[in-house]
TrEMBL record:
This is HD domain-containing protein. CDD domains: HDc. It comes from Pseudodesulfovibrio alkaliphilus. Residues 212-408 form the HD-GYP domain. SUPFAM superfamilies: HD-domain/PDEase-like. PANTHER family: 3'3'-CGAMP-SPECIFIC PHOSPHODIESTERASE 1 (PTHR43155:SF1), CYCLIC DI-GMP PHOSPHODIESTERASE PA4108-RELATED (PTHR43155).
Length: 429
């Protein structure tokens, strides 16, 4: 498997935030570009510059798992919930923990910033961390304000606001760098230009950093937890689909690398549900036709998000096609069996198997006999691959145990995350 560019993966995750709330479309890449430009003007380079861009692209990641609006023009408003949630999510990730303090404090005014002199293991050091967090705060406020009103008038007003708050809300050094950059049109043109990748707008210190296949799996697990945590009904679903897909792939004779990539696809198969309101995911009663169509959009959203990351084409197919059906009645493209790869058909079977056998808050999982009847009925209707269902049922105990173990681990993570959020809420910045 080819290595993946770390920046592509981070921007793919950042772009997924656009699906949580359409009012912030492009916001995170613009903040990333703005922060990178300001940091560059201040002479930041190396690890500090890379940390700045990473944290800026992911600064609202805590809102993935919270039902929050990602807006707010008031510098003094309390944005602590999603900042604390983001800090805790990033703190447990081996490659992202060092930028967790930057995300935690991306709404903290400069004069209220703690010294950040005792970062956790592997986290960004001070004094740079406080300054980096404040640069993100500045770039974030600039972009939010820049989306309102007539550009020429608003941009001059933005400069006045930043200047007025220099030394208090914003570090004077960062404010002065912004004021120098924003005096001409080039800075604003970069932020509003017709580009899709942040590297097209600014030079980045991390543009060529690669991550290996072994490092990609923790990334996918990380996002699986974020996706599942949005809904109390499916708090461990993605991890169950991932493990059963890998196990069924092994039983089908696929090589170990393909098994691992199916585990990645299972972890990410519902990433498009970031586009679905939590109220629909958690609705206790049946969905209306309009609501059902809104939920169906998640498959196409998964495809779009994953295809934005070069090197994930097969994973994008397998993940986004889990609702396609062999008879062509599925979505998003109505593909028939001969157009579906083995990997896509495996994830489709394992998504159904996991959904019907896992416990949900509103009902227990099906017994082996009950689930076997459902799977066979779906084969008879042309909705699932007959050979794969037969293989799964021949090895039901093994596949079911893999699902239970994976979801038990995910449940521990879910409870840990919930307790951290409650604890963090009691210690608001």
């Amino acid at each position: 498997m080819n290595n993946i560019h770390l920046l592509d993966l981070i921007q793919g995750a950042s772009g997924a935030l656009d699906y949580v709330n359409s009012t912030v479309t492009g916001h995170h890449r613009r903040v990333g570009a703005g922060a990178a430009a300001i940091g560059g003007a201040m002479g930041l380079e190396g690890r500090d510059a890379a940390d700045l861009v990473t944290a800026a692209l992911l600064h609202d990641i805590g809102a993935f798992s919270l039902d929050l609006r990602l807006d707010g023009l008031d510098f003094e408003a309390d944005h602590g919930d999603h900042a604390r949630a983001g800090f805790r999510l990033l703190s447990v990730h081996p490659m992202l923990s060092r930028v967790a303090p930057l995300v935690l404090h991306h709404h903290t005014p400069w004069h209220r910033l703690p010294p950040l002199s005792d970062p956790g293991p592997g986290q960004a050091d001070t004094p740079a961390a406080a300054l980096l967090a404040n640069i993100i705060n500045l770039a974030d406020r600039v972009d939010v304000l820049d989306q309102v009103g007539t550009r020429r008038v608003v941009r001059e007003r933005i400069r006045q606001i930043i200047s007025h708050n220099a030394g208090t809300v914003f570090a004077r050094e960062a404010a002065e760098a912004f004021l120098d950059l924003s005096a001409g049109s080039e800075f604003w043109d970069k932020l509003s230009g017709d580009w899709t990748h942040v590297r097209e707008a600014v030079d980045l210190p991390m543009a060529d950093d690669l991550i290996s296949h072994d490092q990609l799996l923790p990334f996918s697990r990380f996002f699986a937890l974020i996706i599942d945590f949005r809904s109390r009904h499916t708090a461990t679903h993605s991890l169950g689909v991932a493990e059963t897909s890998a196990r069924l792939a092994a039983l089908a004779g696929m090589p170990p690398e393909s098994q691992d990539r199916l585990r990645l696809a299972g972890n990410l198969h519902d990433i498009g549900k970031l586009a679905v309101p939590v109220t629909l995911l958690d609705k206790p009663g049946p969905l209306t036709q309009e609501e059902f169509e809104a939920v169906r959009l998640h498959a196409a959203a998964s495809e779009s998000i994953l295809r934005s990351v070069p090197g994930l084409d097969d994973i994008a197919d397998w993940a986004s096609q889990h609702h396609e059906r062999p008879d062509g009645s599925g979505y998003p493209h109505g593909l028939k069996r001969d157009a579906l790869s083995l990997g896509s058909r495996i994830v489709g079977v394992c998504d159904v198997f996991t959904a019907i056998t896992e416990d949900r808050p509103y009902r227990p999982g099906m017994t082996p006999d009950q689930s076997a009847r459902v799977l066979r009925d779906m084969v008879g209707q042309g909705s699932l691959d007959a050979d794969l269902v037969a293989l799964l049922l021949d090895n039901h105990a093994e596949v079911a145990e893999a699902r239970r173990e994976a979801q038990a681990r995910a449940h521990v993570e879910f409870e840990r995350y919930r307790s951290l959020r409650v604890d963090g809420a009691a210690h608001a910045a």
